[in-house]
From TrEMBL:
This is CpaF family protein. Pfam families: T2SSE. It comes from Variovorax terrae. Belongs to the GSP E family. PANTHER family: TWITCHING MOTILITY PROTEIN PILT, TYPE II_IV SECRETION SYSTEM ATPASE.
Length: 437
């Protein structure tokens, strides 16, 4: 067993070495010259055929050049070159790993990954910035997005539903900055989120009543706090007979629902023509006979159209917003409306917000990477020119008998007052009377 560990350690040490990078770059140049001799037919080869070609050529190259590496090291270089020619080089395995949520690259030497909300540096690296850019352009090629000095920032949706953001020189000072966000192919269901501890069964029951009762819900939280996953889960409670329109900057939502129309904004061309903003899509969606409208992220002038939709017959609509608390969420709505050119009085705006939003779900990422609903808050109306709220559940972790931290949501004993939940009132009173803490 110890010999296997030593063998794995030796392999990792070789992968981390400059010798590995130098030999791989040298062999890569040799392979490219051989591919040039073969012509365009190479583009039609399967991955298996490419691997066979790499192994054959690499074996010959190592012997002819008398490169001092053993069979194991030759195999490692062969695997890396196969990924280089047919895939996405050093990050290919990370892109295939379902446990990886984010891949963050700060220049060619520094690669970080997020697993279960925890960020860690990995030993992978690129040969140089040109190597990194070559892989990034290969990722962007199917999307048709350009990345060069005249267009040094790209934010795009990947074919598999993920998202890539790239910033290069002269804007990124220490080399290309690449952020890849991955999403599950099968979004988490409410039952799975309960198993993961994001919220408990009682809160799940309340959320089901709120969605089925066509309450308007905002999911509030910070970056990578789980807002999109929670929104996906909430959508599973929407009746199958309803038509749902989703509107996003970069399409990330993957709703488990039979009747979904997905709309995505467009940043515009090189000369800034052809821009289609979320606000434009929201206006247009009102003519598409939606039963519910879901806005991936509210962060601009679309807040006015969203509130108008929520107030004019599109009950049950949902969205996410960046805010650190339910009260901060309301302040942010006011601020965004002001930026969008809202002309009415402050009281009038707050009345619109109070009438539009029924529930605010505050979600956060804890220091250990776990995502938890921190607060379930109902918006109850306007009181002395302020939007009134009542907190129904609050996350207050307890300590177990062995000193371990345990998830706990404290019920404040309040039954939601929204008339939309009238037919669920008896069941809601049972929830509150169940002694839930």
């Amino acid at each position: 067993m110890s010999s296997e560990v030593e063998f794995a350690d030796d392999n990792q040490a070789f992968l981390d070495s400059q010798q590995f990078q130098d030999i791989k770059a040298w062999a890569h140049e040799h392979l490219l010259s051989r591919i040039e001799e073969l012509g365009a037919e190479f583009g039609r080869w399967s991955r298996t055929a490419i691997r066979q070609f790499v192994d054959l050529e690499l074996d010959s190259f190592v012997r002819l050049q008398r490169i001092p590496i053993n069979d194991s090291e030759t195999r490692l270089i062969g695997e890396a070159l196969t990924k280089e020619l047919s895939g996405f080089g050093p990050i290919e395995d990370l892109l295939q790993d379902p446990a990886v949520e984010d891949i963050l690259i700060n220049g060619y030497k520094h690669v970080y990954v997020s697993r279960r909300g925890v960020l860690q540096r990995v030993s992978l690296r690129f040969s140089d910035d040109e190597h990194l850019l070559r892989i990034v352009r290969r990722i962007l090629a199917p999307i048709g997005r350009r990345l060069d000095e005249s267009n040094p920032m790209v934010d795009a949706r990947l074919p598999d539903g993920g998202r890539i953001n790239v910033v290069i020189e002269p804007l990124a000072i220490d080399g290309p900055a690449v952020s890849i966000r991955k999403f599950r192919r099968d979004p988490l269901s409410p039952a799975e989120l309960v198993q993961l501890g994001t919220f408990d069964a009682t809160i799940s029951q309340l959320l089901e009543f709120a969605v089925k009762g066509r309450c308007n819900i905002l999911v509030s939280g910070g970056t990578s706090s789980g807002k999109t996953s929670l929104l996906n889960a909430l959508a599973t409670f929407i009746p199958e007979s309803e038509r749902v329109v989703t509107i996003e900057d970069t399409a990330e939502l993957s709703l488990n629902h039979p009747h979904v129309v997905r709309l995505e904004s467009r940043p515009g061309g090189f000369d800034s023509t052809g821009v289609v903003a979320i606000r434009d899509l929201l206006r247009n969606s009102l003519r598409m006979r939606p039963d519910r409208i879901i806005v991936g992220e509210v962060r601009g002038g679309e807040v006015l159209e969203m509130m108008q939709a929520m107030n004019t017959g599109h009950d049950g609509s949902m969205g996410t917003i960046h805010a650190s608390s339910p009260r901060e969420c309301l302040y942010r709505l006011e601020m965004l409306a002001g930026f969008a050119g809202y002309q009415g009085s402050e009281v009038s705006l707050r009345r619109q917000i109070a009438n539009a939003v029924d529930f605010i779900l505050q979600i956060g990422r804890l220091s250990n990477g776990q995502r938890r609903i921190l607060s379930v808050t109902e918006v109850t109306g306007l009181n002395d020119s302020m939007v009134a709220m009542q907190e129904l559940y609050r996350y207050e972790p307890g300590v177990g008998p062995n000193g371990e931290e345990r998830d706990r949501w404290v019920s404040l004993g309040i039954t939601p007052h929204s008339p939309k939940l009238a037919k669920f009132r008896q069941a809601l009173q049972k929830l509150n009377g169940s002694g839930h803490v």
